[in-house]
């Protein structure tokens, strides 16, 4: 009986007794959720263009952030280093399209998926060779990202908001809005959807598959760079970030692999759910809920709604 009370009643009692702590937890979950959604959009881009889950997106986040910091450590001014990092992501997109994807046009999806595994380990090796394996500090001050915190008196207590979290949420929200517009309203966005439906059909109507793939991988690289800056500013830049980036997998399962709104809603569910679970239910199991709760939620969705909240239900008739 005590266990049932601790699981199903006491957390809600705590929320009512300390609403300011609840608001603080919800804010932290919101920031994480928006950043998860931004990461997930990078996966959605590649999936829409090729129909394949891009396992390399996580390491692209790390590689982009390390490139930015690496240029700065070489003595390059911060904003020039940012421009050069964008250039590196463009070169990476072109290289992937020419060397990896172009020879695999019309190959089975599993072949393309395995190719993203190869890209992952190439980038890991290249990153360790060039930048080393030690964590690095993100150049937040040099990029004029805010530091410090602001406090609000609310619901009988105080809520502290880190300025970098506010900036991260705003920048991520702007990126998500721009990408959503790109998907739905531009000619390239429509071509991308056509490529996702059928490579052969897209080629037959004059859509350049190679050009679309290069654009999509470059856009995913920009998303990875912004994500790496925001996550790096909140912690540090290291190869551990790729584990955080793979939290996009449960986000995509929740929202649907081809849905921009789904990536946003899924990111918020995972981000807020993790923080609430860790703060209110974590002590019951000794902590650590934040590391596995997202995958538990994703498993539940796979059992009852495998296409996700906004995904298309595929019906095959025999």
3D architecture notes:
The protein is mainly α and 318 residues long. The chain folds into 2 domains: 34-246, no CATH class; 247-309, no CATH class. It is 70% helix and 4% strand. The protein has helices spanning 2-8, 10-17, 19-50, 57-73, 78-101, 109-131, 163-185, 187-197, 199-204, 209-234, 241-245, 248-255, 260-281, 293-304, and strands at residues 149-154, 157-162. It has a two-stranded antiparallel sheet. Strand 1 and strand 2 form a beta hairpin. InterPro entries: ABC_transp_permease, BCAA_transport_permease.
How is the secondary structure organized here?
Elements: H1 2-8, H2 10-17, H3 19-50, H4 57-73, H5 78-101, H6 109-131, E1 149-154, E2 157-162, H7 163-185, H8 187-197, H9 199-204, H10 209-234, H11 241-245, H12 248-255, H13 260-281, H14 293-304
Antiparallel strand pairs: 1-2
Helix pairs in contact: 3-7, 3-8, 3-10, 3-12, 3-13, 4-5, 4-6, 4-10, 5-10, 7-8, 7-10, 12-13, 12-14
């Amino acid at each position: 009986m005590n266990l049932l009370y601790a699981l199903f009643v006491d957390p809600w009692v705590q929320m009512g007794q300390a609403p300011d702590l609840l608001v603080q937890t919800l804010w932290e979950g919101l920031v994480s959720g928006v950043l998860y959604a931004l990461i997930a959009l990078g996966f959605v881009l590649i999936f829409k263009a090729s129909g394949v889950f891009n396992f390399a997106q996580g390491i692209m986040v790390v590689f982009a952030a390390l490139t930015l910091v690496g240029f700065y450590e070489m003595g390059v001014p911060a904003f020039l280093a940012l421009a050069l990092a964008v250039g590196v992501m463009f070169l990476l997109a072109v290289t992937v399209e020419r060397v990896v994807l172009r020879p695999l046009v019309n190959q089975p999806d599993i072949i393309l998926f395995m190719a993203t595994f190869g890209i992952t380990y190439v980038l890991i090796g290249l990153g360790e060779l060039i930048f080393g394996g030690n964590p690095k500090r993100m150049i937040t001050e040099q990029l004029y990202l805010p530091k410090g915190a602001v406090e609000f008196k609310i619901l009988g207590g105080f809520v502290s908001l880190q300025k970098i979290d506010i900036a991260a949420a705003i920048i991520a929200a702007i990126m998500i809005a721009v990408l959503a517009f790109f998907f739905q309203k531009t000619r390239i966005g429509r071509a991308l959807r056509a490529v996702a439906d059928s490579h052969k059909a897209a080629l037959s109507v004059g859509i350049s598959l190679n050009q679309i793939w290069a654009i999509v991988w470059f856009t995913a690289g920009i998303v990875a760079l912004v994500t790496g800056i925001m996550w790096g500013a909140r912690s540090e830049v290291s190869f551990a970030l790729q584990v955080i980036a793979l939290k996009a997998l449960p986000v995509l399962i929740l929202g649907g692999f081809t849905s921009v709104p789904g990536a946003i809603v899924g990111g918020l569910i995972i981000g807020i759910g993790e923080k609430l679970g860790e703060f209110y239910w974590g002590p019951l199991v000794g902590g650590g809920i934040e590391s596995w709760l997202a995958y538990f939620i994703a498993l539940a969705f796979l059992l009852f709604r495998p296409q996700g909240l906004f995904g298309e239900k595929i019906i095959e008739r025999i």
